Amino acid sequence: MTTPPPNPRSDPYEPTAPKDRPARLTVGVVGAGRVGPALAASLQLAGHRPVAVSGVSDASVRRAATLLPDVPLVPPAEVLAQADLVLLTVPDDVLPVLVEGFAETAAVRPGQLLVHTSGRYGTKVLEPALRAGGLPLALHPAMTFTGTPVDVQRLAGCSFGVTAPEELRLAAEALVIEMGGEPEWIAEENRALYHAALALGANHLVTLIAESMELLREAGVGAPDRMLGPLLGAALDNALRSGDAALTGPVARGDAGTVAAHITELRKHAPQTVAGYLAMARATADRALAHGLLKPELAEDLLGVLATGAEETR
């Protein structure tokens, strides 16, 4: 009996099987922000060859020099002239204009892979390049980036939100797996919702933690990061495992007096945080009620406190 070949997706830490790998490609980066150089460095580890990168700011130049040493810094059009695979790692609002400009100036070559990393967009934003013969892929790593070499390591096991034409799905999957990632297919019409979900969870989390650390310092805690680390780690683990069943704290318990005291102290010491606290407390109360964690007889007083706090904030 013949042993079946290994599944190239069975382990994101293992390289893809040779038959599933795309041909070795020259790689260019347009926009040396935090994401592009890390992805290009990861592709280099898989055997591809970065040949050009564009960047304007001093920070971009430093990132490129750190993550892609000896790769020349050139104008964007020159990146497209040199690379088989071009990573378009620019801000979301810049991407449509950039792609249109490349198409209008005939910078896109037939058969050239154009890969953007925007969470918001699928491949529709690359249609001008498609009309010029380019091959469009949307590969968005669900990861926060620092602009340092640690980002390359963090790609191992990272999910990528992938949108691609049917005929390019295998190529998209192979590229993601070569970077150590796991492809998660996102329909074109769901890209904005997908990205909003990630922003809600990751970006807003940073804001919440930063505010929490500031308040702890105000309360006299000398090392708020050390205090929050174990607590937040456990909360995140519980939430990922159990969802709403992991809700704890005064809102989920219906401790209206405690919540009122919180609002009073926040108004006194950090009034800019009150609106966010009230919004999150109300959302928590609604979810706790819906899942039977917050007793209805306790919810009335709690919701009254939150409503009063919202009125006073206006």
* SS field, number of helical segments: 13
Largest sheet: 7 strands, mixed
Q: What is the strand tally?
A: 7
The low-pLDDT segments are 1-20
- The overall pLDDT average reads 92
Strand order of the largest sheet: 2-1-3-4-5-6-7
Terminal Cα separation, in Å?
74 Å
Shape: elongated
Proportion of helical residues: 40-55%
Rg, rounded, reads 24 Å
Structural class: alpha/beta
Q: How much β-strand is present in the residues?
A: 5-15%
Your description of this structure?
Helix 11 packs parallel to helix 13. It is built from 13 helices and seven strands. A seven-stranded mixed beta sheet has the order 2-1-3-4-5-6-7. The protein is α/β, with parallel strands linked by helices and 314 residues long. The protein has helices spanning 36-45, 58-67, 76-82, 95-104, 127-131, 150-154, 169-178, 191-218, 224-242, 250-253, 256-269, 274-290, 296-313, and strands at residues 26-30, 49-54, 85-88, 113-116, 135-141, 159-163, 182-185. The protein starts with 25 loop residues before the first strand and ends with a helix. It is elongated, with a radius of gyration of 24 Å.
Relevant terms:
13 helices; 314 residues; 11% strand; elongated; alpha/beta
Give the gist of this structure.
With 314 residues, the chain is an alpha/beta fold. It has helices spanning 36-45, 58-67, 76-82, 95-104, 127-131, 150-154, 169-178, 191-218, 224-242, 250-253, 256-269, 274-290, 296-313, and strands at 26-30, 49-54, 85-88, 113-116, 135-141, 159-163, 182-185. The protein has a seven-stranded mixed beta sheet.
